[in-house]
Amino acid sequence: MPRYKKKRQNSAIRGKAQDGFSNALARLGVGTPNLLEATEYIPQRITRNYALLNTLYREQWIVRRIVDTIPSDMLKNWITLSTEVAPATMKRFERALRQTRVINSLKEGMEWGRLFGGAIGVLMIKGQGDMLDQPLDLERILPGDFCGILNFDRWNGVSPSGELINDIGDPEYGLPKYYQISDPASGAVCNVHHSRVLRFIGDNLPYWESIAENQWGSSVIEAVFDDLKKRDNVSWNIAQLTFVANLRVFKMSDMGQLLSAVDEESKAELYRTIQSQNWLMSNMGLQIMDSQDSMETHQYTFGGLAEVYSQFMMDVAGAARIPVTKLFGRSPAGMNATGESDLQNYYDMIGEEQESKLRPILDKLLPVVCMSAFGAVPDDLDYDFDPVSEPNDKERAELAKSGTENVVTALNAGLVSKRTALKELKQQAERTGVWTNITEADIMRASEDLEDEGELGGLLGLPQPGRDSDEKWEEDKHPRAENGRFEHSESGSNEKDTDVEPVPERDPEDITNLLGEEFKGYKGNEAVDKLLQEKRGYIKDAFHNESFGDIALIYGDDGCGLCHIIKQRKQQGFTDEKIKSLLYNLGDVITHGTVGQSKNGKGTFEIFKDGEVAVISPTLRGNDFTFVLTAYKSRRKK
Prior knowledge:
alpha+beta; 7-stranded mixed beta sheet; 3-stranded antiparallel beta sheet; 20 helices; 39% helix; 17% strand
């Protein structure tokens, strides 16, 4: 007996706990027969109803705006690449985007993905049409091979394969490895490897729902559909009320007898009487009736309908995650309402969508565009999404003012050089609209040396306390050349320029005779050999430097070019073999040297490496020229 009691004490009674309010007598709460408990949510799955979605997109303007607005804002201001690629080279990247209409194709793919729940964009690579089932190899993409994006929605013959990506290091791990695309016209079917496919998805779904949708998402219209039906019905009802806003009631004492009469002629007379009276009222404003008849008028008031309609509009906008002011084009309602808070929340949502849905697409796309534009993918390739909101003129002016003051303050404090300051100002130009005239040449001509601390700074060209006004000038510390100009010497350096002969001034009109014939297809040492053999002409892209781009090599004359360099070396006692060895070192110095600003007052630049200096000029005898090698210096220890 004690054993039995102990067993009962240790055992627990298990049951399903159901917590909830219920009042059976009042028919309130859970499990009682009331209207709320009769509510059910039946799965509609309109994502699979292609005909309905297609009809809504074509005929319902609200649906079209829901689908198109968010992709447009996500791509409106595009991105900014953060890489050390030269600006001249970066233009090839921007040109490739325009020629292949990449932004428009991305917008189209995102719209189809949002409308139908899923879409793909196939990367079109020239010469790889028979390799679609193979992984994309970036090394096999040559300059100009990328031809754009070909979009397919999920119902346009696209079927994801059952084979999934099993590499956990792949960003698309767990997604289909291939996409089978069939041509409805020819019936041809091809498998496309996932590395060649950009996925555009609508709303994300839980795991089992995603499996049911064949690894696609759901249409964004699915979450809006019920509220959209309510809004449309309210709108149609309000429109219908306008037809009955003014009711006129005509009372006749014997109307019931006439309508009940068997004689059809009597009924016809009644109808003709009513039509005649209506005609008189409509055309003459006169109503004639029998003394026993009467007329009453009832008018319907529309008070409160606007508030009801606005509430349904807000429900649609909330379901679509788009502010009412943007979705319906309405001005903000209410006292002191500006709509700025709603737009700010919307822009925050756009930023989240860019990071979660657009960035994976661009991470796959941009390396392909870089290979087609540059021939390589920069090691430091990265990008940031530009802000969606555009500042007004007042905000731009304030941004420009504060940005400029910050740069000048840092320059005055001696924290940055003039070159860095100009770079910062130019970088602000895209957003503020000022300092747009700063060129790369202006930046390269600016000094890299840090200025002494002062209140006004060297950027403004004004005297600084303790420098121009208080310091005593000592002439012997600033040697001059025979022509009266100051020589450039590096403090603490034991190096001496051996090529100090000044380049004579020439007639700018003599540029054609100086250049001569252009030779193409020669680079580096081959370019040197070609000009030494011809003893004339020039090669426009003989060398390349990241800061300048292509650099021309000219045979020139005694004043510049190879002829000038050879003459100077011979005067210094160099043998022909030593001169040729020196010239063969040109390519290494120009490509891998350190760029500096020449201080000879002629706007030239210098490239230093291992005691050798290549002098680069953006002009040739007063004529603009895309960076030409005009001299070559050797520096030796004293």
